[in-house]
Amino acid sequence: MFKLSIINSKVLLVLLFYSYQFQGQTGNLTFSESISTIMETASDSVRINSQIKLVKYLLNRNIDSAKVLANDVLKKLEEDNYSSLSFRCNKAEIINYLGIIDAKQGKMEKALSKYLRALNISRDVKDSTLTGLTLHNLGMFYRRQNQYQKAKQYFNEAIAIKESINDEPDNIAMSYNMLGVTYFYEKQYDSALVNYIKAKNLYTTELGRTKVNGNMALLFSSLKEFKKAINVFQENIRIFERLGVQNELSTAYLNLAASYNGIGDFKSAISRLDSAISISKKRGYKELLQKQYLCRSLAQKSLNNFEQALNDYTTYKLYNDSLNDINQAKRITTLEITNKFEREKLQSELELQAERVEKRWYFSLLIVTLALGTCIFVLIRKNTKIQLAITARKLQNEELQRKTTEQILEFKEAELKNEFLKSQIRQEYQVVLVNELKNILNIEQQQCRDKAIKSLIASLHSKKIDNQTDNSLNAYLDKVSPDFRIKLNNHFLILNEKEKNLLCLMKLGLSTNEIKDLQNISLASVKSTRYRIRKKLQINSEDDIVAWIDDFNTDK
């Protein structure tokens, strides 16, 4: 599988070349130019700038890919200790984008930390453009925290800096637009509208104008002009679908659903919310999911679908707690959540019971006293059972969630290690392949060049290039599990290098199939090597090899 993915990277280069040729005819070169430059350029500065452009392009299209690429760029900048002014600017910019990604995924404390770090670097290098970008992002952060005065302060500072340096109109428009949103949340609609108009007049792109139109539609909804709002949101959705901007598309579906709720068309609202939730789940937009589940809960409640409304509200609370109370215990118990939705449903029944109790008082004080005593006894007993059952269910759910979370974390950790390892080896492979191609292009005689191409094709089917990646694999294993590798080298001299490498890969949590694909060997070869290790170390077949080595007493 891994071998195939490496070969596919060569195919990707070819496809990107043709994509470049085609898009050159349409005038949209941004994506292809960035990919082509990253893969082919020999200059670190040009390559890093192209990677940052690609992160920006992926930000609202594939946030996971954007995060992986952004972290790789930051790691490169920090490991190689680039100190020139341009590289420090690159560092501030990529930290900004990582902060935006954290904010989209609900990791607000991490986002704030990155914004402040980027602001310090931007001011240190005296880069007004980056300073304006960072101030804008801080305004976005505090607006999401409902600290509107702070948000307006940062947005105004960002606008002042951007205008003083004659920044691109779209960048200035973006800050005016978000300043308008902040006024909107404060219900200062006139001020909001003034800033929306300024933003719309500045935007030069279709996508930028859709953002302002969406905010104006929200203003229409607040003024109960729902039909106007619905028309604007539907037009924006068509544009976002065509452009593939998933974050804005999910937000537009949410706002359209809220407008349908406003006119009482709850079924249409639920349909749009289903689409919004589907997109947000795929992209990991926790902040949007919180709002979308709450909106769908209210729509389900309006249709008397109380059970579904309760489920949606419970999910909303989970996202809300993870965003706002991540370091605190949950404030609302399951009983309180249930009572909120059961209250209206049972109100008429409770009133009827109260009337019956009142009538009993008129018949006989004795009968009422006995009935009341019996009722109190039954209710206390029933309530005690309910409380015990709820507590037991809550404990079971918490234990299940804890175990599930631990399993997910273990799986993700193994998956990330595996993907990182594959990425390291793939990069080594690409470097070798690019060098080979450059050498072939330098050959002047056609006959010699054809011979070299045939030789390269033959090497792709052999282990010639694979063997050049073995050193990268060994170096990576030494870095990832240094203590484990030292233990193997010092206390298990009976094992050969191949067996030690297999144990290191098992230590990383890779499966047998993943090890097979990674080392380009057969499944039987992996099992045979593992059997030899057990035989050499006299380990029983039911014992875990890695755990046995970890527990091995080296003091003997």
Automatic annotation (TrEMBL):
Gene3D superfamilies: Tetratricopeptide repeat domain (1.25.40.10), Winged helix-like DNA-binding domain superfamily/Winged helix DNA-binding domain (1.10.10.10)
GO BP field: regulation of DNA-templated transcription
Regions that span the bilayer: 361-380
Pfam family, one: TPR_12
Extent of the TPR repeats: 92-125, 132-165, 173-206, 250-283
InterPro entries linked to this entry: Sig_transdc_resp-reg_C-effctor, TPR-like_helical_dom_sf, TPR_rpt, Tscrpt_reg_LuxR_C, WH-like_DNA-bd_sf
Domain HTH luxR-type positions: 492-549
One GO molecular-function entry: DNA binding
Lineage top rank: taxon: Bacteria
Keywords from the UniProt entry: Membrane, Repeat, TPR repeat, Transmembrane, Transmembrane helix
Record-linked SUPFAM superfamilies: C-terminal effector domain of the bipartite response regulators, TPR-like
Record's protein name: Transcriptional regulator
